[in-house]
Amino acid sequence: MATITFYGAIEGVTGSAYLLATDKVKILLDCGLFQGRREEEEGNLEAFPFSVAELDAVVLSHAHLDHSGRLPKLVADGYKSSIYMTRPTTELLDILLKDAVSLQLRDVEWENKRLRRGGKKLIEPMYDLEDVEKTLSLCAGIDYGQRKTIAAGVDICFRDAGHILGSSIVEVFVNEQGVEKKLVFSGDLGNSCSALLRDPEVVEHADVLLLESTYGDRNHRPMQETLEEFEDIVEQASINGGNILIPSFAVGRTQEIIFRLGELYQKGKLRQQAVYLDSPMAIAVTEIYHRYQDVYNREDKAALKQGSANSLHSFLPVLRYSSSTAESMALNNIEAGAIIIAGSGMCNGGRIRHHFKHNIWRRNAHVIFVGFQAMGTPGRALVDGAKFFNHAGEKIAVKAAMHTIGGFSAHASQSQLLDWINHFSQPRPRLFLVHGEEKTKLIFQEFLKQQSWDASIPAKGETISF
Question: 283-308 burial string, b = 16+ CB within 10 Å, else e?
Fold first, then answer.
């Protein structure tokens, strides 16, 4: 009898990790970083709660670090077998893991300087660049819809999740003594109103379903209202004459914003002289998006053909890349008429902070938040009305107009999650809610009960048989 043990994204939305075991093999689904509060992130340094040496394969739903970020630690601890994912995910993972290890090594160096001065024991990084390179060498890309045997009695098949490029719903087929059972892991399901990517692919059969519940407690604002507000802000900024600053996440959100600005440009409603993408990582990710247009949805792919080269760049001809530090610094001389997209998405690092220094004190400047701002981050402080922005010890007065647009989420909403699971045929699968805050999962569980779904909320470390 097969079992699944819940190790991560159980008490919150990060650290995704689930262990599938039969009497012959053990398969790990996802291996993500715990992110958020310090006590949560300390869990990344702990030993894995299973034997790494006994793993036969790892399956990755998508590239986001809360699903992939501990893979190099797994390799550093001795894992040597294949890591299966979609082909676009292999390319995104190369970028994200190398950036993550760079930031980690920098943070460890700074922390050790402090510890050394205090005569305290130094800390070691969770993994290094060599571990990342070894991890990438183990990655095997599989096309959507291709069923593949990955271990004795275990096949997998990836279905399009529509969350970010390459994101997948993972179908796992377990054959024991001639009887096949099917586990489906939703991964992160995409918002069906998002740009570029297709809606989550319908799956109709499963014995067990692990369902993400990030927004299981609410529905998103209608996309049409979101786009109208976005257009109004861009128009107001052009009248005021100031720059627009958009803190944005490199994977997914940035590409959506570029596409939405392209729509305004194609309609003659974008008066700004230039749109600058000032993030080396986001630039690299955008180029990967160009190469995988075969997974775009039909409508947005057709819209892109209005550009001469059938790409995001040609759809928005005023888009400029600022790759180097010098190019980024040159933007500080632009006082009006520009839109600057830069990371990090929550303003706790990256080039956006330098652009705040040169613009946020201007009354005609605008800041548009297009992603979630977690408690304790500079972005959240600004959204909540902070009067000053702290940058490198300098307090800068906040005079720019702040705008929060909440409809660009890359996750499915409550009604979208329900619509997706309602495609499963009778008998319905055993349903387990994962990847959600405790309060959210409880609300979603009650909502599903009213819709005749019996959903369980597993505890961390709990094992169920199927």
Answer: ebbbebbbebeebbbeebeebbeebe
Task: Extract the tokens encoding 434.
Answer: 């994962």
Asked whether the beta carbons of 9 and 16 are under 8 A apart, the reply is yes
Q: What is the DSSP letter of 351?
A: T
Alpha-carbon distance 123 to 297, whole Å? 46
| pLDDT tens digit sequence for 273-325 | 899 999 999 999 999 999 999 999 999 998 888 755 578 888 999 999 999 99
Distances from the Cα of 65 to the Cα of 28, 30, 94, 311, 465, angstroms: 16, 10, 11, 27, 28
Per the rule left: phi > 0, alpha: psi between -120 and 50, beta: everything else, 227 is alpha
> What integer pLDDT is reported at residue 52 of this predicted model?
98
Using DSSP's 3-state secondary structure scheme, residue 442 falls into helix
| Separation of alpha carbons 259 and 197, rounded Å | 11
Tell me the CA distances in angstroms from 35 to 12, 43, 203, 325, one per residue in order.
9, 9, 30, 28
410 in Cβ contact with 164 (< 8 Å): yes
Q: How far apart are CA 400 and CA 264, in angstroms?
A: 23
Report the amino acid identity of residue 406.
G
